Amino acid sequence: MRIPIGISNRHVHLGQLEADKLFGPGYAFKKFKDITQPGQYACEETVTLVWEKWKIEKVRVMWPNRRTTQVEIMVGDNFILWTNAPIEVSGETKDLAYIKIVGPAGEVYGPFALVAQRHLHCTIKDAQELGIKNNDLIKMRVWGIRGLVFENVDVRARDDYALDFHVDIEEANAAGIKPGDRAELIR
Ligand SMILES: [Zn+2]
């Protein structure tokens, strides 16, 4: 089975508390574009990430809000910001890097930043067909001039997910992946 690949740029998921502080209480976020996971989208709104003297602007806010705020950056961003965000499964809340988020109505500061570990979204049925299960670590291959094998791909099997192998822009560039490319599960 050829599995679609989703390429993520840096982005933030906001908790309600931080959303209220950054954009004003009860602010209604506007849809910019859908992403592959059902019911989720990128918003028109962006924030600025700040650490020490450095900043990264125009970082996209994702919808829906989550229970806790999470800033997903890339390894290279750690060098830009002088942060030390660890590679973790998205949704992990322990030992994240401190970072400041600046929005139009205010700013927040806290242990929000991680680098998302590469992962495969799929339904329970997809997982069964692929012979894998939730939280497995699997290998995915891509082809081409920079073809390589991605190890430690975390499986996220849930019925409200769509089949999609998620890497960030750096990983995609390292493997020469372009939008629309596909990957294969290695057994
Ligand atoms: Zn994902």
Shape field: globular
Bound molecules: zinc ion
- How do the helices and strands follow one another from N- to C-terminus? EEHEEEEHEEEEHEEEHE
What's the count of strands?
14
Main β-sheet: number of strands, strand sense, barrel status? 6 strands, mixed, barrel
Percent of residues in helical segments?
Answer: 10-25%
C-alpha-based Rg, rounded: 17 Å
Strand content: over 45%
Distance between the termini: 12 Å
User: Average pLDDT value?
Assistant: 96
Report the total helices: 4
Which consecutive residue ranges, at least 5 long each, have pLDDT under 50? none
Topology (SSEs and partners):
Blueprint: E1 2-8, E2 11-13, H1 16-23, E3 31-34, E4 41-51, E5 54-63, E6 70-73, H2 75-81, E7 87-88, E8 97-102, E9 107-116, E10 119-122, H3 124-130, E11 137-142, E12 148-157, E13 164-168, H4 169-174, E14 182-186
Parallel strand pairs: 1-13, 2-5, 6-9, 7-9, 10-12
Antiparallel strand pairs: 1-14, 2-6, 3-4, 4-5, 4-8, 8-9, 10-13, 11-12, 11-14
Bound molecules: zinc ion (ZN).
